Amino acid sequence: MPGLSEVTAIILAGGFGTRLRSVVSDRPKVMAHVCGRPFLAHLLEQLRLVRVSKAVICTGYMAEQIEMAFGSSYGSMQLTYSREDHPLGTGGAIAAAADLCDSDTVLAINGDSYCAADLHHFSNEHVSHDARASILLTHVNDAGRFGKVSVAADGKITCFDEKLENVGPGLINAGLYLFETKWLNLLPRRRPLSIEREIFPLWIGHGLYGHATLAPFIDIGTPESYMAAENFFHRAAA
Predict the structure, then answer these.
(1) Do the beta carbons of residue 94 and residue 195 sit within 8 Å?
(2) Are 123 and 178 in contact (CB under 8 A)?
(3) How far is CA 71 from CA 44, 68, 79, 80, in A?
(4) pTM over 0.90
(5) CB-side exposure of 62: number of CA atoms within 13 Å?
(6) Residue 19 near residue 116 (C-beta atoms within 8 A)
(7) Cβ distance 233 to 160 under 8 Å?
(8) Quick one: which of 158, 165, 167 has its CA closest to 137?
(9) What is the DSSP string of the chain?
């Protein structure tokens, strides 16, 4: 696989942000401001720093706000949009956006979370495993809210555990994925599909790997986690 400069990124930014509506009601979740700019800008900056040259942003709810704010570029990065006319879920959105990608590998990112991991290392591990897909995993003290991921010594993912209370520490899906485009091309188009619940479990034992990291992680899916995001990025910059 070429370096990240030749990998197209897909950013999942079409969600309704229902749980966040009590504190952010006038914009899509990825446009919620953190440290004075939309959360999406932090994701684009992370991609810019590893020299990703093209990103496809999957939009849906209040899509116009995102497209008007960011336009066709972020620095030297080319931006295009894959707009959903009805909710497609994570898998459906990635499948639709894959039709706009001309790279052999894509880097897909959840638009409501950020993991300060070494993306070059993640990419190198994906290549060394000759993986169909790789999931970036990070360690948290309470995996129950997110669901726990189990990984074998060779990096192969062996199990996904549902969200449960009192799970304790463990590895979770950090919302960054590397996919070989030829496998995404086999996914059905224009119908709702969850990459986490419907695709990844089927790929266990068939080229699905996890890359574990201790890198800091934040999501803005709830009012509480959104309020913590400001301090997260201040600490990251310190």
Answers:
(1) yes
(2) yes
(3) 13, 6, 7, 8
(4) yes
(5) 16
(6) no
(7) no
(8) 158
(9) ---GGGSEEEEE-----GGGTTT--SS-GGGSEETTEEHHHHHHHHHHHTT--EEEEEE-TTHHHHHHHHTTEETTEEEEEEE-SS--HHHHHHHHHHTT--SSEEEEEETTEEE---HHHHHHHHHHTT-SEEEEEEEES-GGGT-EEEE-TTSBEEEEEPP-TT--SEEEEEEEEEEEHHHHTTS-SSS---IIIIIHHHHTTTTEEEEEE---EEE-SSHHHHHHHHHHHHHHH-
The whole-angstrom separation of Cα 29 and Cα 187 is: 26
Residue 7 has pLDDT above 50, yes or no: yes
User: Tokens for 149?
Assistant: 């991921």
How many other CB atoms are found less than 10 A from the CB of residue 1? 16
Average pLDDT on 12-33 reads 87
pLDDT-based confidence at residue 2 (cuts at 50, 70, 90) = very low
* Residue with token string 């709830």: 222
Q: Say whether pLDDT at 15 is over 90.
A: no
CA 63 to chain centre: 18
CA–CA separation, 62 and 81 (whole Å): 13
Q: Which two tokens stand for residue 102?
A: 């001309």
